[in-house]
Amino acid sequence: MAKDLSAIIIGMDPMNNEAIWEKMLKKTFWGQGGGGIFSAAMSGIDIALWDIKGKAWGVPLYKMLGGKSREKIRTYASQLQFGWGDGSDKDMLTEPEQYAQAALTAVSEGYDAIKVDTVAMDRHGNWNQQNLNGPLTDKILRLGYDRMAAIRDAVGPDVDIIAEMHAFTDTTSAIQFGRMIEELGIFYYEEPVMPLNPAQMKQVADKVNIPLAAGERIYWRWGYRPFLENGSLSVIQPDICTCGGITEVKKICDMAHVYDKTVQIHVCGGPISTAVALHMETAIPNFVIHELHRYALLEPNTQTCKYNYLPKNGMYDVPELPGIGQELTEETMKKSPTITVK
After folding, report:
1. Of 3, 104, 175, 332, which one has the fewest beta carbons inside 10 Å?
2. What is the number of structural domains in the chain?
3. Has residue 336 been placed in a domain?
């Protein structure tokens, strides 16, 4: 897909990212239907264009986006159902005590916010996503609640908890579980229903007294528009690497600001995803928090690039190198397929 798009834009000035973005969108015809694969290809090209521009001008990306709105980027430890801190890939946790311990480990490293999915795995360690359409049994609800409550009891009231649902629940079960965990002081409730369903998201928002978040599987301004117009989402979560790149996501963030919505960039990839997110998050006024996924700490991810940006006491500094402030290693380049477009 990136090869096909590259053929469309060869010969254009890389400084003209707006014109290039529009040409990729309009010249392909079917591309206007959107979708993750097409949008991700556009994103890769767009990020490269901004990197070229920053390196040519000798400035970091955030300065081209308007400068800093903040010096430090507050960060949460993400996906604690996989554990935290041992540096290995492991099976998902099952017992409430394990969830509590993972949260305590993250807090001991300086994080004052965490995200966790407490319903995706059943009591025996089996994936549970096929069994979460409502109405849910008390057994399933109680297990998810007990895990979440164990975390709250362990970390106390001053740590923010994001409840991740991965859209495994539907409208009925999301309302059931959301109401159940309201008393635990949840920071926000992520993807409680299918992320392309603004009407159902609104139903959950009206019934559950927790701010809703979604966006990693919503694409372009046109995808976000119905969610902003119906007011269902309090936090939007565009992924710069799949949502159209820097050019598009900056517009989405500005659009959300008009509706008094905050932004948490979705970061579930490698060091390039982290770098571009940090630049965007320091620039926009409506930033809320940065995501550090557990898998981003594993060596197969960290070793792909030259710079391993990490938070200190739950706070990131913003890269100051020109462009996005990140480079692939020579080893990564050797392992990757090379495609030449003429």
Report:
1. 3
2. 2
3. no
